[in-house]
Write a structure and sequence with these properties.
This protein is an all-beta fold and about 100 residues long. The protein is built from no helices and 10 strands. The chain is globular and about 35 Å long.
């Protein structure tokens, strides 16, 4: 973890896990091989990339991220982006794969 991202696991087991994540700047593009993810925006605003789509996100929105789909987010608001992230099956970090072919 860095000062850019703060993550705290709220609960979970082998079937599901939940994290509260604060993003000051960005989460670089990555995918999860074995699990899907639901993201609920609690505070802030951002620009999310999901596969080939890019769209704005804000408080109250729910985003579904299918497994094996590259995704990233940049915080664009005046406060850090705060999200609830729920993964199924449970997340232990072992299936996180960074995207190495990003074009800027």
């Amino acid at each position: 973890q860095s000062t850019n991202i703060y993550s705290k696991q709220l609960n979970g087991d082998s079937l599901s896990s939940a994290f509260c994540i604060l993003i000051k700047q960005e989460v670089k593009s990555h995918k999860h091989v074995k699990h899907s993810e639901q993201v609920v925006v609690l505070e802030g605003e951002g620009l999310m990339r999901l596969g080939n789509e890019e769209f704005k996100i804000s408080q109250g929105e729910v985003i579904f991220i299918p497994r094996n789909t590259f995704h990233s987010v940049k915080s664009t608001g005046k406060v850090p982006l705060k999200v609830l992230s729920i993964q199924s099956p449970g997340f232990d970090g072992s299936d996180r794969v960074p995207e190495t072919n990003t074009l800027k």
